[in-house]
Amino acid sequence: MSGAQPANGPAGDGEGTLAIIAGAGALPWEAADVIARRRKIVVFAVDGEADAGPASIETHRIGPGQIGRMRRIAIEHGCRDVLLIGAIRSRPDFASIIPDLETLRLLPRIVRAAVGGDDTVVRNVIGLFEQEGFRVVSVAEAAPELLAAPGPVGARQPDAKHEADIALGMRYLDASSPFDVGQCVAVVDGRVIAVEGAEGTDAMLARVADIRRARRFRSEKGAGVLVKRAKTGQDMRSDVPVIGADTLRGAIKAGLGGIAVEAGRTIIAERVVVAAEADRARVFVVAR
After folding, report:
1. Angle at 84 between CA 80 and CA 88, to 5 degrees
2. Cβ 247 vs Cβ 273: under 8 Å
3. Going by CATH, does the domain composed of 147-287 fall within 3.30.565.10?
4. Residue 129 burial (CB < 10 Å; 0-12/13-18/19+)?
5. CATH for 18-144, options being 3.30.200.20, 3.20.20.70, 3.90.25.10, 3.40.50.20
6. Which of 37, 218, 249, 275 has its CA 20 to 30 A from that of 67?
7. Which residue spans within the chain are E strands per DSSP?
8. pLDDT per residue over 186-227, tens digit each?
């Protein structure tokens, strides 16, 4: 590896600048705001994915062909630690990339890193950063307050039927973890209605709404739950399960009674908004 090396220094101690690789959604900017209170940060917003952030946060837009530029800026800022956060909705079209020289050097490894299921890709991407001398840190290390604490978010709690559906959903996700499929499932009245695949949580919830309208299953409005949790053995440095206001709105449109997530290993983004909207819609959001 040529050129300057990333600066040393342990993560989470407030020393050294943290590089945040930001994908889509409000979460990367929520994390940046929290972390910036105790540590210097620089954000690299993934072009075509990341939303616009506040002007007060130093941000550099990067495309898939600009790894060299990102690495150079990170080194100039004294970064050793990297946080990967936010959704990446599509994998890059390598045929359309015009790489800088550093990206050209790394391109064979980048292509290999993008092949496989979500867990495989996460491990490959983390390995790519580590091979370049960076240390990829987890949300638990960089911003633990973003992780769901046990208990309800808002005023409402699941009833006995919801509790049974939550337990079934958790068992199903435990059993399906080795297959690297998805992180969430919809369960209604003791029946698994939908399992998240490559389409993501929001699209899965839209599918639940469609099949409810088509009367492919019958239940009262407010029955059932969305259950989301990390896979067994999942590397929590990336692809941490996340719910936010859009997730809640999707669950409400699907007619579900609420959302249950795994405490300590799931992020609840936009927590104040989620609590207020859940109470207004008379649905629950709970971490277990």
Report:
1. 150
2. no
3. no
4. buried
5. 3.40.50.20
6. 37
7. 18-22, 41-46, 59-62, 81-85, 135-137, 151-152, 184-188, 191-195, 225-228, 242-243, 258-261, 267-268, 284-287
8. 999 999 999 999 889 999 999 999 999 999 998 999 999 999
